Amino acid sequence: MKKVLIPLFIGLLVGVLIGTFAVPNGSVTGEVVEDLPEEQASTTTTTIPYSEVIGSERKSPSNRVEAEDLVLYRNQVRIYMDDLHIAQFNDTNSMDPFIDEDAHAIQKDVTSKDDVFIGDIVAYEDSDGFLVLHRIVDISEDSEGWYAIFKGDNNAFVDYDKVRFEQLKYIVVGIFY
Question: What is the pTM of this model?
Answer without folding.
Answer: 0.69
